[in-house]
Write a structure and sequence with these properties.
The complex is a heterodimer of chains A (280) and B (364). With 280 residues, chain A is of the alpha/beta class. Chain A has a single domain, classed as P-loop containing nucleotide triphosphate hydrolases (Rossmann fold, 3-Layer(aba) Sandwich). Chain A has helices at 2-12, 61-68, 91-97, 113-118, 133-145, 161-174, 191-208, 219-225, 243-246, 249-256; strands at 19-30, 33-45, 50-54, 76-81, 84-85, 98-101, 179-183, 211-215, 228-233, 236-241, 260-264, 271-275. The N and C termini of chain A lie far apart (61 Å). Chain B has helices at residues 17-25, 28-48, 56-64, 78-113, 125-139, 151-170, 178-202, 207-215, 223-242, 244-250, 254-259, 264-286, 292-304, 308-332, 341-358, and strands spanning 144-145, 148-149. The two termini of chain B are 22 Å apart. Chain B is globular and about 65 Å long. In chain B, 70% of the residues lie in helices and 1% in strands. With 364 residues, chain B is an all-alpha fold. Classes of the chains: A alpha/beta (280), B mainly alpha (364).
Chain lengths: 280, 364
């Protein structure tokens, strides 16, 4: 089966980081001036690991994601996917190595959820080749993992925000890539769906040995579900490491320019970050 | 099985997986055969009706007699033979080719722009093409080169210029909002039409040719015109048909399509080029006819869903049938006068357009 072959190929490559970002800077032009949105950032993601990318608005998180998916070219440094430089890979080869769950995905209302998930098989299909039953099977497994199989034949336009988000996640899983990139997967979700989505990502990462890079806005959520964190400020790495060492009060107050309290979660003992109102 | 329903759908079991694709898409052949039957019926009625009512039996005889070695026209009046073979048949075929081209081009624009209201006329492509053709006509440039008509080529240049301008103006970030696309299209359309009229008034010797390009219609259809159009319309149609699955992926936003391995820029250029070529070929032969590219793809979507792998072939068949039917009405409703076929398509299209505008979000 294709799935088994992919798993075997994946274990052969173990030791090579699924994602390597080495000294990367990204510039883009706004009007006549060049803005350096990412400056000399290095990070890597190994199989079975969830790396959280955090930082204030405009700190370069989304720009970095775009550079990793080949949407923007770095002005310096290297980005490698499974040992190959990203800009030397063809579009579909790249899509076989990394799947993306974007922020605010535009989805066609009239297509059914299953059709959208089947689109995840695109990089595995040749020109003029239609989806075969093993593609449907891959889509079914992805949809069962995300509890969306019972929505399979419903039109996207009828689904709630949380359901749509899970369908997009299923599409990324059906893409059958070693690496998953999540760009604020929990934006616009309520607290129940936030926890459910990240918990699901966490479990899939553990059971399938996928690597995950997730941009997470909410620091407390990031701390509960990520193995390691990279904190960006103004395009540079301000802190990185395990959750406890990254989410320190002094670091966060400097990076975010606001007063915060950090304390341990009563169950997980991981950091919880809460704003401290002025004058309190 | 109902594909997309509001009622809760029962969970599918793993054993059913191979059947899922079929239930998802339905079978293409039955609906294509149904469409072809409708097309054959409307074509035959079109050949029969008009100032001279010709029995269907005689039409079949006249058509068959053009096969090599067959002659069944012994007792058919010679005038009828001329009417069917030299007047009505080219007209029906040209209306079919133009209808198919416009409908398919509309479906492709809607997919690439992710905009349910994109129609070659509404986004200014048809009027741009008409301006391109007009410039060739009034400039006195040779209309053909080694037997290949240059009119569709000139129309194509006009069409592509319009697409690039309208897309450039209407684009907001990564998307093309419904309203800005139509506003930019209407504005550019007005300008192109104004220039066309100006050129026409400057150069009265070709007024009739230009007039027929602007107004649109099939009363000047000949076999030669069909031969003009086909070398442009057929390759354009083939390209669009080949990219059906890719067009599905493009109906997500461009970033998602890229993440799924689609070379977005290349595909967009190829598909917009093919759609514009088809529209230009249609305009150079039959003038600007509005709303065909809007009505037909949406009717197919309402009936059979949005998958472009079935949508595109079905728009060819039903686009042809629709415009042949509209032309039949245009030439018979007020006999012996003909009314421009654009009046008929507007009567069908405007209510449809307004309905889609009301629910612009849900239509796609």
């Amino acid at each position: 089966m294709a799935l088994e072959a992919a798993t075997a190929a994946r274990s052969d490559r173990e030791g090579v980081a699924l994602l390597l970002v080495d000294g990367v800077s990204v510039e883009y032009r706004r009007g006549s001036r060049a803005i350096e949105a990412v400056k000399d950032v290095s990070l890597s993601v190994a199989a079975g690991e969830v790396l959280g990318l955090i930082g204030p608005n405009g700190s370069g998180k989304t720009t970095l994601i775009r550079a990793i998916t080949g949407g923007l070219k770095p002005s310096a440094g290297r980005i490698e996917l499974g040992g190959e430089e990203v800009n030397r890979l063809s579009q579909s080869e790249r899509a076989r190595r990394v799947a993306v769950v974007p922020q605010n995905a535009v989805l066609p209302d009239a297509f059914s959820a299953l059709e959208v998930v089947l689109m995840g098989r695109t990089p595995h299909l040749r020109f003029l080749q239609d989806e075969a039953s093993h593609d449907v099977e891959a889509a079914r497994q992805a949809m069962e993992q995300t509890s969306t199989w019972d929505l399979a034949l419903r039109a996207m336009g009828e689904l709630s925000g949380g359901e749509r988000q899970r369908v997009v996640l299923a599409r990324a899983l059906a893409q059958d890539t070693p690496l998953l990139l999540l760009d604020e997967p929990t934006a616009h979700l309520d607290i129940g769906h936030q926890g459910a989505t990240l918990g699901l990502v966490r479990r899939i990462c553990a059971t399938e040995g996928k690597g995950v890079l997730a941009v997470v806005h909410d620091l407390t959520l990031a701390a509960q579900y990520c193995d390691r964190l990279v904190l960006l400020k103004d395009g540079e790495v301000a802190a990185e490491g395990d959750c406890e060492s990254t989410l320190r009060q002094d670091v966060l107050e400097r990076v975010y320019g606001a007063r915060v309290s950090v304390f341990a979660h009563p169950e997980t003992r991981r950091p919880v970050v809460a704003p401290s109102p002025d004058g309190a | 099985m109902k594909l997309i329903g509001r009622a809760a759908t029962p969970p599918l079991t793993a054993a059913e997986a191979p059947d899922v694709l079929r239930s998802l898409r339905g079978r293409l052949w039955p609906r294509m055969l149904g469409g072809l039957a409708a097309l054959a019926l409307i074509s035959t009625i079109s050949l029969a009706m008009g100032a001279a009512e010709i029995p269907i039996e005689d039409i079949v005889r006249i058509l068959l007699s053009h096969l090599p070695g067959v002659d069944m026209t012994a007792d058919v009046p010679a005038a009828w033979q001329t009417i069917v073979w030299d007047v009505r048949l080219p007209r029906v075929l040209l209306a079919g080719v133009v209808g198919a081209s416009l409908a398919m081009s509309g479906a492709t624009y809607q997919g690439v722009f992710r905009n349910p209201l994109a129609d070659p006329y509404l986004i200014g492509v048809a009027t741009g093409a008409a301006l391109g053709a007009t410039i060739v006509v009034v400039s006195g440039a040779p209309a053909s080169w080694n037997g290949v008509s240059l009119l569709p080529m000139a129309a194509f240049v006009g069409a592509i210029t319009s697409v690039v301008l309208v897309y450039g103006v209407a684009r907001v970030g990564n998307t093309v909002p419904v309203t800005t696309l139509i506003l930019a299209g209407v504005a550019l359309s007005s300008l192109a039409t104004a220039i066309t009229w100006f050129l026409m008034l400057q150069d009265t010797s070709n007024t009739l040719t230009v007039f027929s390009v602007v107004l649109g219609g099939f009363n000047t259809a000949t076999w030669t015109k069909i031969a003009w159009v086909l070398p442009y319309a057929v390759p354009a149609g083939v390209i669009m048909l080949l990219y059906g699955r890719t067009l599905n992926v493009l109906s997500l936003d461009e970033d998602q399509a890229r993440h799924l391995g689609v070379d977005v820029e290349r595909t967009k250029i190829l598909l917009l080029g093919a759609a514009s070529l088809a529209a230009a070929a249609a305009v150079s032969a039959a003038g600007t006819i509005a709303f065909v590219g809007l009505i037909v793809p949406h009717a197919v979507r309402l009936m059979w869903g949005p998958d472009n792998r079935q949508l595109l072939p079905m728009t060819i068949i039903l686009g042809a049938a629709f415009l042949i039917g509209a032309d039949l009405i245009a030439r018979t409703v007020d006999e012996p006068q003909e009314i421009p076929v654009g009046i008929i398509t507007a009567f069908c299209g405007v209510p449809f357009f307004l309905y889609l505008l009301r629910r612009a979000r849900g239509a796609y």
